[in-house]
Design goal:
mainly alpha; 2 domains; two-stranded antiparallel sheet
Length: about 120
């Protein structure tokens, strides 16, 4: 803010998500019209038109879904504990931790870790 850098002394990112997925597309979608390689539609039903997308717009709902699964298993989790379960359960890859954090989101890893704890 105001040109001042604030550091929290934590390595970022916390973890990564493979964020290549399908998304619904609107009728006459300009993005698909100008980039036909993004079209993933396999039906003539326009209400089911799909497109390939990637990046944070696709990663966000994946992480939100993972958090929802954690909260379903333990409704008393705080946002901090939810983050900790996601980070601890991450699948370690071959990329440096400064590029991938703790690893890739691993929903099965969350459930293994969560089963060790009684509701908080």
């Amino acid at each position: 803010m105001l040109g001042i850098k604030h550091y929290d002394n934590l390595i970022k990112p916390d973890l990564v998500v493979q964020a290549t997925s399908l998304s619904l597309q609107a009728e006459n979608n300009l993005l698909v019209t100008t980039n036909p390689q993004l079209d993933a539609t396999r039906t003539t039903d326009q209400e089911k038109d799909m497109m390939f997308l990637s990046g944070t717009s696709m990663a966000t709902p994946i992480v939100a879904g993972a958090a929802a699964l954690l909260l379903q298993a333990n409704p008393n989790l705080t946002p901090t504990w939810s983050r900790r379960f996601n980070v601890y359960g991450a699948a370690v890859g071959r990329i440096h931790m400064l590029e991938q954090g703790a690893g890739e989101l691993n929903i099965e890893g969350q459930s293994d870790w969560l089963s060790w704890f009684a509701p908080i």
